[in-house]
Amino acid sequence: MPANDEMRHPRAPGPPAYVTRQPEGGSRTASTMKAAVIDSPGAGPRFADFPGPVVAYGETLIEVTAAGLHPIVRMLASGEHYGSQDMLPMIPGIDGTGRAPDGTRVYFGGVRPPYGPMAQRAAAGFALPLPDGLDEVTTAAIVNPGMGAWLALNRRAALQPGETVLVLGATGVSGRIAVALAARMRAGRVIAAGRNQAMLDQLGATATVTLGGPDDRAALAEAVGPDGIHVIIDYLWGRPTEAVIAAITRRGLTHAAPRVRLVQVGTMAGPAISLPADVLRSSGLEILGSGPGTIPRAEIIGAIPEFMSVAATGTLPIEIDEVPLTEVGTIWPRHGSRCRIVFRP
Predict the structure, then answer these.
(1) Angle between the N-to-C axes of helices 173-184 and 136-151, in degrees from 0 to 180, rounded to the nearest 10
(2) pLDDT in tens, 329-338
(3) Other Cβ atoms closer than 10 A to 57
């Protein structure tokens, strides 16, 4: 979605402002609503009636305007993600945008299972006002993939100006944002690696590596060069990550190994790698995870306004496929799109 004029003038970042409404009497039940409903882990959702959420103390009843279909949403719904909960039937989703009871435009999350954002209404555990210039559909599309990159670079890798960054899986939605954010954070070099060369050429990276060739290790080593690399943001894992580790490994007893922070964010190429023990003894490789469980929830929520302020500038890449929620059963199986699907109730 192209940026409008207002998106060039974001509100200055600051501490998060929370929109909350504590219902009278401690809880309130809304009427039946339309929602995406999943009845079993092996099946996609259907568009159906579902009882409205019970709003508990400290939660906010949101009139939902948009909810993103992120890869983690599919994984949670299928039971494949470590955060999955066995509560069926369920409404999928992890975040969305909407209107608080006072009409404020908000980004929200923290919806208690079996409820989720893909419905007409949601009882949100937290709700944050949107900055001026950031519309609700763009917010629903970009915050989840963007926060994955923002936290990996800022919190886990603690990227410093002038350092070299390799984004492994740079042609995905999250990877493209990570490349843009690394450049914005004044990385010295940004190396983008992925399978789609045409997409890589559009990213404005310092160097690119097309994966899936005859020798990924050699191609990555050439891009890294003699000066080495400081940060790897990894959305792939599996064989591409093994190739990266081999590319940065040095042999000998007299070399001084530079510190390399590999931040693991996604597993699009596989759930496991083979890691030789001597790599950890002979190199400066540090492997860090970035996701729920590695960063306190309060810190994640506190960082969302920082990222939304950046997103409001309109400088981060995001392509959006906006779809009515009534079509959820048809759209859900779609994979591999360069667009982020956003449902509108």
Answers:
(1) 70
(2) 999 888 766 7
(3) 10
